[in-house]
């Protein structure tokens, strides 16, 4: 089992979550589409060669985003990551994947 955490602008959160959920990620027992959301502010500066969805090359940008956390079974993690990347508006979405101990 893995914990998948990703950061997405609030305007695109539902679309990205639904794409990830469609892979089967976010299931806990008899419940699906389970996640936890935290509001925050992300920052980044697009470098030369970037094609930013938000902001301008060379300028620091701050964006209100959601941190989405969910669990994902081992055999689904690659599909979930592919869906995340395909649905996310950023060309380089920020995410973390952590293996969970099977206690």
UniProtKB/TrEMBL annotation:
It comes from the Bacteria. This is YqfO family protein.
């Amino acid at each position: 089992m893995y914990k998948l955490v990703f950061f997405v602008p609030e305007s695109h959160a539902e679309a990205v979550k639904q794409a990830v959920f469609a892979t089967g990620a976010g299931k806990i027992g008899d419940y699906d589409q389970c996640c936890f959301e935290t509001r925050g502010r992300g920052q980044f500066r697009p470098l030369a060669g970037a094609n930013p969805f938000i902001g301008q090359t060379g300028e620091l940008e701050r964006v209100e985003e959601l941190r989405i956390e969910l669990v994902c079974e081992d055999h689904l993690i690659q599909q979930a990551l592919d869906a995340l990347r395909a649905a996310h508006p950023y060309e380089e979405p920020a995410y973390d994947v952590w293996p969970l101990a099977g206690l």
